[in-house]
Design brief:
about 350 residues; 14 helices
Length: about 350
């Protein structure tokens, strides 16, 4: 019996590993289909209150859907125009930036090379940094962004059907799982929507503010592609910690290459750092009423995993995705320990109990 149980456990573990590998391969190879689908799913959570609010005021659902699709279409069109204009301008000025970067690397090599040379001569920065490689990488990332934005029609189609089917989902759960704790499943769905919607609403509002502030600062300093970097700052701030660093370093590095003025570059770095910290570390935490309570290790792993799976878009979507997984896991007794391991050390059941207490009882 013991040997049989051991074989059962081994078989279960092997099956689980094979299932995880299979899911990973599917996610990787079907990224072109799944990325628009997942993005539309989060947009449907974000815009569902708009449709419901308009219906509550007596307006037909079609008007609410038209408004939501119109807002999303304008957003995609605006992002695409900014990204396309930035990519075209970058392509036109690539020779200038190549010359400037070569000049800076040559001067840097003269200064640093004697200290880290191999004894047979000063180190050339061309051995470390390839100008062509930097240009190719930047072009590749811009192309990826344009490809995603060009898939906007697919996102809109998914979004339309998700909003149409969203109202009937709780009723379908009650019918399909009748007698099988259906109300609890509906409660999980409501909690999932509430947490993710609150996170997306606050995060998106502050990201728009951050992108606008970044654009104004860069425009004031005369940085090339200010609008594009504002858009990048908006998108990257969905990525915890790393996003704010990248949205600061990228325009500062380009400004250094553009002007070659170290003093002005340092001033720009200080101003952007202050802006990013005030918005991301002071204002946003005060307004963010719901915390996802994710472990920093889980956040880092999800960034790396989804970044490897779906690139920059995967990194942007990684936190909402892992938050959805955590909420689902903590809703069932068998998987609750896994949700605790994914969290920041707090017991979700205790947290939920305290959140549900009346304010005067606290």
């Amino acid at each position: 019996m013991t040997q049989y149980s051991s074989w059962q456990r081994t078989g279960a573990v092997s099956t689980t590993l094979l299932a995880v590998i299979a899911v990973g391969l599917v996610l990787k190879h079907l990224s072109g289909i799944l990325i628009p689908f997942v993005l539309a799913g989060f947009l449907s959570i974000l815009f569902k209150p708009v449709v419901e609010g308009l219906r509550a005021k007596g307006l037909p659902r079609v008007i609410g859907l038209t408004i939501v699709l119109g807002i999303t279409s304008v957003g995609f069109w605006t992002f695409y125009q900014i990204a396309a204009a930035g990519a075209e301008s970058f392509s036109e000025r690539s020779d200038f930036y190549t010359q400037q970067l070569n000049y800076l690397l040559k001067n840097a090599g003269k200064f640093v090379g004697p200290f880290i040379g191999d004894g047979h001569g000063a180190l050339s920065w061309s051995d470390v940094v390839s100008v062509e490689g930097v240009t190719a990488f930047a072009t590749q990332q811009l192309t990826g962004i344009l490809t995603l934005l060009s898939d906007g029609m697919m996102v809109l189609l998914y979004l339309l059907f998700m909003l149409l089917a969203g109202d009937s989902l709780p009723q379908k759960i009650r019918i399909g799982f009748a007698g099988k704790d259906e109300e609890r499943l509906v409660g999980i769905l409501v909690e999932l929507h509430t947490k993710i919607r609150k996170y997306l609403q606050v995060k998106t509002a502050f990201n728009i503010f951050n992108g606008f502030a970044t654009w104004v600062v860069l425009l004031t300093f005369g940085v090339d592609f200010a609008a594009l970097f504002g858009l990048i700052a908006f998108a990257l701030h969905y990525i915890p910690n790393i996003g704010s660093i990248l949205s600061t370093v990228l325009p500062v590095a380009l400004y250094l290459v553009q002007t070659g003025d170290a003093a002005s570059t340092i001033i720009l770095l200080v101003v952007l750092t202050v802006v990013q910290n005030v918005i991301g570390n002071v204002l946003e935490p005060k307004v963010m009423g719901v915390q996802l309570k994710l472990s920093p290790v889980v956040v880092l792993f999800s960034l790396l995993f989804w970044g490897w799976m779906w690139g920059v878009v995967g990194m942007i979507l990684s936190i909402p995705i892992v938050a959805v997984i955590k909420v689902i896991l903590e809703s069932f007794p068998n998987t609750h320990p896994l949700s605790v391991l994914m969290g920041n050390g707090e017991d979700p059941r205790i947290t939920h109990a305290s959140e549900n207490q009346p304010t005067h009882a606290r």
